[in-house]
Amino acid sequence: MNEHRLINLVLRSYVVLVFVFIFTPIAGSVVFSFNIDRFPSLPLGGFSLHWYETIAADPAVWQAFKNSLMVGVVVSLVSTVLGFTAAYTDFRYQFFGKSIYMALALLPPTIPVVIMGLAMLAFLSRVGLSGEIYAVMISHVVMCAPFAMAVIRMRLAQMDPNIEAAAWNLGANQWKAMRFVILPFTAPSIFAALFVTMAVSFDEFAVAWFVSGLNETVPVRILNTLQGQVSPTINAIGTIVFITTMTLVILAQLLLMRRHKPATA
Amino acid sequence: MTQPLVVFDNVVKHFGSYHAVERMNLEIYKGEFVAIMGSSGCGKTTTLRMLAGLDKPSEGEIRLNGERINDLYSWERETPLVWQNLALFPFLNVVENVEFGLRMRGMAKAERRKKSLQWLERLGLEEFAMRDISLLSGGQRQRVALARSLVTEPSILLLDEPLSALDAHLSVRMQGVLTGLQKDLGITFVYVTHSQSEAFAMADRVVIMSRGRVEQIGSPKEVFLEPHNRFVAEFIGGKNILCGTVIGFDDRGLVRVGSEHGEFLARRPEGKSTTPGERVTVCLSAEHIDLTEHPRQRNRLTCTVVGEEFIGSMVNIYLDAGDGLELQVQKPHADYNRLGLRNGQKIVAEWDGACALILRGD
């Protein structure tokens, strides 16, 4: 028993250390966003909402949030639809070259973002979309759809394939079976995919920086601020972005954890 | 005779190079309980799936009520299936599962709810109507699956090994529920199983399949008393198989068969002719063999006892008759105890020639 307790303690400490390692910089950023001092230093100078007031007064920041939100909504909707269709194709059909199809569908997140950004810029400027907000949307859909597919595919993998056939057998044509069986079953993962893809889009910097032109998204705005001056407003924006993203990801996780009902009857 | 409800006319199904069903010919009548039986991979489930519209025949024609249904989708025909794993919808509660078929047919909510509740009541599930599927026991889910398939009042119900997941006791009780329902509703049941006891207990007719082919169709009694070939005899179990050559006939009309174990008598099935010199396969039921030290019959073999096995009220005794022939004999406990057999003991196995049956096929 003593041995077990020791191992337990070591493992617990390890987990805590990992979290400390990951979250300390972010926590620092959050703390300094409420610090009155111009430069981050210890001890803290005093509590203030000054930096939040500053960004609230900055129309460029407002515009960036608006852009990010618009991009995020469109991207999450489009990439979830695409991700769902790809995942369902994988679940339902066997065909020649399926493994290649799946590999291609999952590929975009593995491409280095700088290369992706350059490629997107080259392509989108050729079709005359570079610098438009649509350019960011298109690029983000390419990058987010695989995440949506992965999330929905996990859920479909838990589904007894017979229940779709059972619906057909009970008089549901393929559309009705989709509407009354597949969609209800995968609903939690569809919502999770919406949140995850929105979070990914909201966070994405590199590709957006290449293709956004004047339509800055929030991460691009942060970098542009940083290039001009070292200002604690970055901490304030960063805190808002962090909270937004974490909220989305946690919502997605909660939805995915609700699948305790056994998948097969 | 009236028109059959279902006809399989030379139906073939292959998946790539694998032949799942070969030239299937089968007629199923209204109100009949037909069991399709065979070991796994014999094509019984494929047969059922073709009838349900889930697999499409490669060749031949399936007719329902005289109309070709090969090209109808599953949702275009009224052939509900009770799945082996039940395939209930996990995101719907009990009554929502049951009313699914009515909902797909566009029945108004109040009406379909009322009908579904009636079915749940009929199957003793009314108190579970609002319950989650995952909270039901195996037997209760079974009945939900039945209600879900029957709620649309089909003329035929397909069942794919529905009892295989239940324990023996529950399975026997569900057999009662199924036969009761089938009699009450007067609809056709097509029941696929690998279990001989289920098939024989419930079915009016059994279809025995092996490697995609129909080996025999008949009532359980016919199949049990007169298996057509060696496969069927071995499949239903409790049968001994002897091979030999026809030598001639005795004065009772029995066939004299010569074999490497000596000459013995056997009966011909009705309508089968035999000629001297012909190779025949003879089937002898385990319960028709007597064990004695004072033989009276002409058909006898001196054997060595090699083992026994208790099966409920009976005992299986295994005998070595020499030359690689092993005999299985079945006796009630009282007879077994009277014999007082020991392993290695010599004993004479004898039987009446009228009980040994020459098989129609190999």
From TrEMBL, chain A:
Residues 65-252 form the ABC transmembrane type-1 domain. InterPro entries: Bact_Polyamine_Transport (IPR051789), MetI-like (IPR000515), MetI-like_sf (IPR035906). Its main location: membrane. PROSITE patterns: ABC_TM1 (PS50928). It is found in: Cell membrane. The chain crosses the membrane at residues 12-34, 69-88, 100-121, 133-152, 180-202, 234-256. One of its GO terms (biological process) is transmembrane transport. Belongs to the binding-protein-dependent transport system permease family. CysTW subfamily. PANTHER family: PUTRESCINE TRANSPORT SYSTEM PERMEASE PROTEIN POTI. This is ABC transporter permease. The lineage of its organism: Bacteria, Pseudomonadati, Pseudomonadota, Gammaproteobacteria, Pseudomonadales.
UniProtKB/TrEMBL annotation, chain B:
The keyword Transcription does not apply. Keywords: ATP-binding, Nucleotide-binding, Transport. The keyword Transit peptide does not apply. Residues 6-236 form the ABC transporter domain. It holds the Pfam family ABC_tran. InterPro entries: AAA+_ATPase, ABC_SmlMolc_Importer, ABC_transporter-like_ATP-bd, ABC_transporter-like_CS, Mo/tungstate-bd_C_term_dom, P-loop_NTPase, Transp-assoc_OB_typ2. Signal peptide: none annotated. One of its GO terms (molecular function) is ATP hydrolysis activity. GO terms for cellular component: ATP-binding cassette (ABC) transporter complex. Gene3D superfamilies: 2.40.50.100, P-loop containing nucleotide triphosphate hydrolases (3.40.50.300). This is ABC transporter ATP-binding protein. The lineage of its organism: Bacteria, Pseudomonadati, Pseudomonadota, Gammaproteobacteria, Pseudomonadales.
